[in-house]
Design goal:
The chain has 383 residues and is α+β, with helices and mostly antiparallel strands. 56% of the residues lie in helices and 17% in strands. The protein folds into three domains: 15-72; 75-225, Beta-Lactamase (2-Layer Sandwich), CATH 3.30.450.40; 237-382, Reverse transcriptase/Diguanylate cyclase domain (Alpha-Beta Plaits).
Amino acid sequence: MDFASLIGLMVVAFFFGGIIINRNLLRKNNLGKVAELTRQISQLEIERTRLEKEVNKGIFDILAIYEFTSVLGSITNLKELYSMLVDTILRIIHYDACSILVTNPETNELEIAISRGLAPEIVANYETTCVDKGIISRVMQRGQPEIINDLHSLPWPDNIYEGFPYNSILSIPLVIHGEILGFLTLYLRQKNGFKRDDLRILFIIANQTAFAIKNGYLYEKVAEQATLDGLTGLYNYRVFREQIEKAVARAQREQISVAMIMIDVDDFKLVNDCYGHQRGDAVLRAMAKKLQSSIRDIDMVARYGGEEFAVILPNTELEEAVAIANRIHQAIGAQELAGLQITISLGVAVYPGSDVASADDLVCKADTFAYQAKFLGKNQVYY
């Protein structure tokens, strides 16, 4: 083989060898690109799954909040509201324990409205550990929510959280028009348990809850005014009529007795004429307290009108009703009311009985017997 032919063969060999090498390189490059694409697709799938979970969680949270807020307007019982609130939050944000403190509108002091998961000894010492020097105090002073993700790393005064089983706390004030109505606090045993997203969700719930609490207070006040006598705090005549009808209806169904005591303050006009109406009002208020302390838990006392009071005694025979009337009579006469010695006349009647076949009959009979007690000299029980 001459030199030229040898050179030609070498060129051909290099050419085909180069093709093979390039093919291998391409194959390796393609495999690398495929692996990279596979890795990127896997990451995208992980991210898609994460985003899908977040979207589903967000939709679930929105639905839970919507369900909660949609029924707030129909809730007038504050205990029901607090219970529904902590149940709703648990569906959205995991917690090991929680508490709601609200300001009593009469005493202006914080009280535990509801607690879940807190041991009795913690609840018993709650004012010391959380309100006076603890997390609630911090939130109260700042008027802003706070997240603590390592409770025991902070220098609390007097080591008030020593032995406290929770590490993460999220507390948020319930505020309406700048007025703090209370505090919602969540607890977790683990550290770093709460996130800012949790706080954003609680903001929405807390704002709606504050409005509901305020409305609940107003509703209870209106309901109280509609059922209670403004002077004595006893049930008013309207409630008395409702209850005496129910008591007699129950007695008819169950074939039992129901008794009633009508009470009239003796010579009350003289009290007003001699000492003034303010003194007379003080006598009636003192009388109301004395009556409430002289009856049983199952009984109901109401202001019937003016200086008259009525007591309903469910499932009570005449003998027991007379004994209770005598106890009331003795209690009133045993001490002064508003600085005055007061006597009362009492009439006792029972359903069913002679000429007593309805609620109206029962009221009429008791009233007649009270009048008879006055006619016979006052300061006595007649039946």
